[in-house]
Amino acid sequence: MDVTVMKYRVQRKRLLQGLGLAYVLVLLSFYPWQWRAADFGGAVTEQAAETAGQTTDGQTAKDAGDTVPGQAGDDAGETVPGQAGEDAGEAVPGQAMEKPKVAITFDDGPNAKWTPILLDGLKERSVKATFFLIGVNIEKGDNAEIVRRMQEEGHLIGNHTYHHVEMTKVSDTAALNELAMTGELIQNITGEPVEYMRPPFGAWQKELEEKLHVIPVLWTVDPLDWKTEDTDKIVDRVVKDVEENDIILLHDCYESSVEAALQIIDRLTEQGYEFVTVDELLAD
Ligand SMILES: [Zn+2]
Q: For residue 211, what pLDDT band results from cuts at 50, 70 and 90?
């Protein structure tokens, strides 16, 4: 065979191979990869939305609403708040990701009239709360039974001094005595040492921490329930202010507070919050 003819054939073969490859590439470029990408992308976005919706919940909604109203419509609107919660709820009901936590706490009890009603409501909703009890109130009537019930139903019980004293205004000895007396009363009922305390009026002396083995617990959301005794105001204030890991302060010695507490629980549960006792929040 002539060398020139062979070169020509080789070149022609290569040219055809090249054309074939180009043809395949053109075909591939028309293949609807973008549909598949959309499938994957969709799944990822949904998951991201789910994470956002569940972990930052109220906060995200507030931030989006406050800071980027226009943009939120486009960006956040599609991926984040209400819609995401619903989608996530429908898509993975059993396999829920971790919910934002919040603790509801009650001071100044036990109260013979309102605490049992509150406990009934908590039980119906399977919600665990934290109670900071006053020694003199534990000793009133059959209130020890209420304390026993708190324990049985899984609530966390803390110390709120014996006489509701402002601990910075009494001597260290008196302050320690206040805590010791109430701690003993509670332990005699529950059989367990009391690990947490809430100082009345939020007044706490740092030095006392070294002399005691209790952990002081303050609060982050205070609707001033004792002052207004107005259920709607208490509910609105808490629902508006609350964010993940907050500790809500209420008092179970007022009808309005007990009613508000149950409404708050229903509203925040609807928003995706999970109620835990304060030890769980402080442990994180
Ligand atoms: Zn108090």
A: confident
Which entry of 57, 107, 108, 225 is annotated as an active-site residue? 107
Q: What is the largest CA-CA distance in the chain?
A: 119
- Catalytic hit among 57, 225, 246, 251: 251
Q: Say how many CA atoms lie within 13 Å of 105 toward its Cβ.
A: 30
Residue type present at position 264: I
Give residue 66's domain range: 12-91
Instruction: Report the run of H or E that residue 66 belongs to, with start and end.
Output: helix 33-67
**Angle at Cα 28 formed by Cα 24 and Cα 32, nearest 5°?**
155
Asked which of 71, 91, 111 is the last residue of a domain, the reply is 91
Protein residues placing their CB within 5 Å of the ion ligand 1: 107-108, 200
**Do 171 and 208 fall into the same domain?**
yes
pLDDT tens track for 53-103: 333 333 333 333 333 333 333 433 333 333 444 444 444 455 557 899 999
Supply 238's token pair: 């808490």
Q: What is the distance in A from the centroid of ligand 1 to the CA of 166?
A: 9
Domains identified in the chain, total number: 2
Residue 96 lies in a domain: no
CA–centroid distance, residue 171 to ligand 1 (Å): 19
If asked whether residues 48 and 189 sit together in one domain, one would say: no
Claim: this prediction has a pTM higher than 0.90 = no
Query: Is 63 within a domain?
Result: yes
Known catalytic residue at 87: no
* CA-closest candidate to residue 242, choices 105, 82, 69: 105
